[in-house]
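Pinned message: reference record for Rossmann fold nucleotide-binding protein Smf
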Amino acid sequence: MDQKRLAQLALHFIPGIGNYTVKQLISYSGSAENVFKSTKAKLLKIPGVGPATAEAILNHRPFERAEEELQLSEKHNTRLLLYSDKDFPNRLKHINDAPSLLYYQGNADLNAKKVVAVVGTRNATRYGREFTEKLIEGLEKHDVLVVSGLAYGIDIQAHKSALKHQLSTVGVMASGMDFIYPALHKNTAREMTSQGGLLTEHSFGTKPEPPKFPARNRIIAGMADAIIVVEAARKGGALITAEIANSYSRDVFALPGEVGQPYSEGCNNLIKMNKAHLLTAVDDVEYIMNWEKEDAEKQEQHSAHDISLLNDDEKLVFLQLQEYQQPILIDNLSWQTQLPVSKLASILLNLEFKGLVSALPGKSYKLAR
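Predicted structure (tokens):
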């Protein structure tokens, strides 16, 4: 890890500051490195920074802790995703209380085109488990990333069903990466790291204490395009996730259940209060999320262009633009294709001459219609 990233990591080990203050420090100082080079007088001018915090910034302990954490991450085969990293979940960046550091084991694309969170009660009924299995099976054709919380009940059913149907699945944990909770799910968690992954905002050694679970739920809600509640009691973590998802303007779905049954009450209330779409089958998700239309348009667009005469680099760029579906800056396209900007500019010009690509203001590009 270079000094710039090490400094950014070190900010997370300053006692008494949270994710918001980390971002605030970088914003006011220009970079993480500049934070540690600032004088105490300058630091005290930053909102939220008092004398004790300023002193903690200026001693060497944050860097020592950062180096210790780096060693632990290597030991546990864990990647550290900083807020500014390209692999950090982009959907999370749009929420105010997003974590500024994530710990990640796995191979899933956290910025997959379609991400669905499936949550529910820990006391899942046969009805809930069977519906979850059928739902995940129906999502297979959309190649979604399935996110849940690795908990008993609906969560673990969602993870296991995703593994069964060859879908990537990520478990968001309320503990450090060295504490798999519940321990009964260790084997599933291990399997997920080769077909999805494990994700947490907590440093190594953090135990899964009760207050951390509601905070974990905001990551589940923030990572997904749609949040599906399969079964829930009148109160519980699944309903907290649904409330958070609504505050993030995410689409929430709920499976209706039998009136009077304790683990149907939460879902029925979400539907009754217009806080969730009624969910009876995967078709409902496809319709509300407009996936069928998007897939049809993508196929139509692919058919409209003959790419058989393109060279390998041109095909790579064309297919990346097709996948992205929106105008994209040349710098971002360069990162996604791993082509130098100078070479990419020439390829884009050739594709523009062939009528396949349109150049837009601000050095952005999209497929021609």
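Pinned by admin. Summary line: The longest strand covers residues 101-106.
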